[in-house]
Design a protein that fits this description.
The chain has 605 residues and is mainly beta. It is built from 7 helices and 44 strands. Strand 42 and strand 43 form a beta hairpin. The protein is globular and about 85 Å long.
Length: 605
């Protein structure tokens, strides 16, 4: 039995229109007449100014297929030739360089790789409720500050490997899916409005990420910030979102410093600034001063600093207070305090760092056993232990019992962490997924989850368990797992692929991504396509390897006569395949012969 988070299917069969190119702009009447004669199988591309576009499936709006201009300021139009622009198509703006990019409210979807490898140096504006597909902005150089608008759905790897962006704001209701911002190595701070949702591994491998500020109720999943070793979680009142996004602090900078001051983009306290702060603060037996953030600096025959200061009373239950501390360092290195201003910070009651003397906790278990549709989940042990980063590491164990007369294939259950005041401050889920073998009727299995980490937060007192969903064998049949020795084209359970020798494809392409540089080999009807298909059919499933190559996004795509296509995800050695929600990798035999042949046709994207 295996458990894993639900994730995207790697093997996908999608319908794609056959596209022919037509040049010359049409007026609205001519375009309407022209489009009226098109079928779902044959759809032309129209050129209008710097844009090539095609009609949407419902023939009511248009999709931008390609941008051909070189403007520094790009404001995508909401209408072209009298038709509303509803979507940006796959790869439409790849490799473009611009100062600013504005996407109009008419557009509801940005397609895969639409802005891949683009440079947007100053401003990126996106509309509310936009859907941003896989790899839409991957490897792009975006502005230092980026905002994800309210209601947006940001799909897997949509902003992966983006450089330059340091501050990310997420408006209410936005959904950030798995790996959406993975490997954004310059990202320092993420500010999330209440009502937003961050799914599993949304920010994995963001090595410089120091702080995530949750303004209100933000939903997260296990491992949202996986491999972000520096990140700390800060909770603030929902009303504090605008001031965080405006200034990188809990307070707006307007009125704090004059125009002569330079606000810091990254408000973390540098070693130099920390030394100035420490030397300027008076020694006190009962009072501790902490430099929370460096908000601004000023050059004036020396350097002036504006700190956000936290003041706490030692051995006291009093809540800490916050001040603006203005400190001057003269040219000789002497420091003194210019001014201290008291301010109100909207931190919630549970947002203070956990007490240092709380290291291990046996959590009170609530809601156990939890039952749904004949399935009972019993949490028997729940423990929390302080981690090296100041947060807690959680361990849970218990049983899942099937009291029904059907086999149970999948159970999704959640843990809600509750502080000593009875307030829930985090929740995350786990999945039992039988894949090939269900929990038999009237039997019980054990589960354990260890090493679940969260950053500094409220001190947990109890945990409540609940069941989110239960799926039987009838609802989620046992999956077909590729078997060692099978041919690849037969092993994946795709009907068209399994019948490839009887009904050959019309095209086949092979893409590799090495160190961020994409190259593709494409074969169409003729001897080269026949040889590529023959070599593809010789590839066999080898042993399961468990080897993932995270910096290679490679695939084989097979296009069929009816306009659909099959896509196989792999790296240069392994097939990467998901069964229900569990990832697998398999060694591939005879792949070298296919690769050697395709290598002679590779062209840089």
């Amino acid at each position: 039995m295996k458990k894993a988070w639900t994730t995207l299917l790697i093997l996908a069969v999608t319908v794609a229109a056959v596209v022919c190119v037509r040049t010359g702009a049409l007026d609205a009447e001519a375009a309407e007449t022209y489009f009226a004669g098109l079928t779902a199988d044959h759809q032309s591309v129209i050129t209008s100014g710097n844009y090539e576009y095609r009609l949407s499936d419902d023939h009511k709006t248009i999709i931008i297929a390609k941008y051909t201009g070189e403007e520094a300021v790009i404001e995508i139009p909401s209408e072209i030739d009298g038709y509303r622009v509803s979507e940006i198509g796959e790869g439409a703006f790849r490799y473009q360089e611009m100062k600013s990019l504005s996407v109009p409210d008419s557009i509801s979807c940005i397609g895969r790789q639409a802005f891949e490898y683009c440079v947007v140096s100053d401003l990126l504006r996106l509309p509310e409720n936009i859907t941003i597909e896989e790899d839409a902005f991957s490897y792009a150089e975006l502005p230092p500050e980026v905002t994800i608008p309210a209601g947006a759905a940001v799909n897997t790897c949509a902003f992966s490997y983006c450089e330059k962006t340091k501050l990310l704001s997420i408006d209410p209701g936005a959904v950030i899916k798995s790996s959406a911002f993975s490997y954004c190595e310059d990202l320092v701070r993420v500010v999330c409005a209440g009502g937003s949702r961050l799914e599993k591994k949304a920010f994995e491998y963001c090595g410089k990420l120091e702080e995530a500020i949750f303004c209100g109720d933000v939903e997260t999943e296990d491992g949202t910030f996986s491999y972000c070793d520096k990140v700390k979680i800060t909770e603030a009142e929902e009303s504090a979102y605008e001031t965080w996004t405006q200034s990188g602090s809990e307070i707006p900078l307007s009125g704090i410093v004059s125009e002569e001051w330079e606000p810091t983009v990254d408000t973390s306290v540098t070693e130099e600034a920390q030394d100035v702060f420490d030397r300027a603060m008076p020694d006190h037996d009962r009072v501790d001063y902490e430099a929370v953030a460096l908000l601004a600096t000023q050059s004036a025959d020396g350097t002036n600093y504006c700190f956000l200061r936290r003041t706490g009373v030692t051995d006291s239950d009093e809540k800490p207070s916050y001040q603006l501390a203005y400190i001057r360092e003269d040219p000789d290195g002497n420091v003194h305090v210019l001014e201290v201003k008291d301010i109100e910070i909207g931190l919630s009651d549970g947002a203070e760092p956990s007490p240092d003397d709380v290291d291990e906790i046996n959590l009170e278990i609530l809601g156990s056993p939890a039952s749904q549709d004949g399935v009972t989940v019993t949490l028997e042990k729940a423990e929390a232990e302080r981690s090296d980063t100041g947060g807690f590491e959680y361990s849970f164990s218990g049983t899942i019992e099937n009291d029904s007369d059907e086999g149970i294939m999948q159970v999704v259950y959640t843990f809600a962490l509750i502080d000593e005041n009875g307030e829930q401050f985090r929740s995350f889920g786990e999945v039992f997924d039988g894949e090939e073998e269900a929990i038999a009727p009237h039997t019980k299995i054990e589960f354990s989850h260890d090493g679940i980490k969260w950053g500094p937060q409220s001190v947990p007192a109890s945990v409540k368990i609940d069941i989110s969903s239960v799926k039987t064998e009838a609802e989620l049949p046992p999956a077909r797992v590729p078997q060692t020795g099978e041919f690849l084209y037969q092993a994946l359970g795709d009907e068209k692929l399994a019948n490839i020798k009887e009904e050959p494809p019309v095209a086949l392409s092979f893409h590799i991504d090495q160190g961020g540089y994409g190259r593709t080999a494409a074969f169409e009807k003729g001897g080269d396509l026949d040889q590529a298909v023959e070599l593809l059919c010789d590839i066999k499933i080898g042993e399961e390897s468990g080897e993932w190559v995270t910096d290679n996004y490679n695939w084989i795509r097979i296009d069929w006569e009816d306009g659909s296509y099959t896509r196989i995800s792999l790296n240069l050695r392994n097939l990467e395949y998901y069964v229900h929600s569990t990832p697998h990798t398999y060694q591939l035999e005879n792949l070298d012969a296919f690769w050697s042949f395709a290598a002679g046709f590779l062209k840089e994207d």
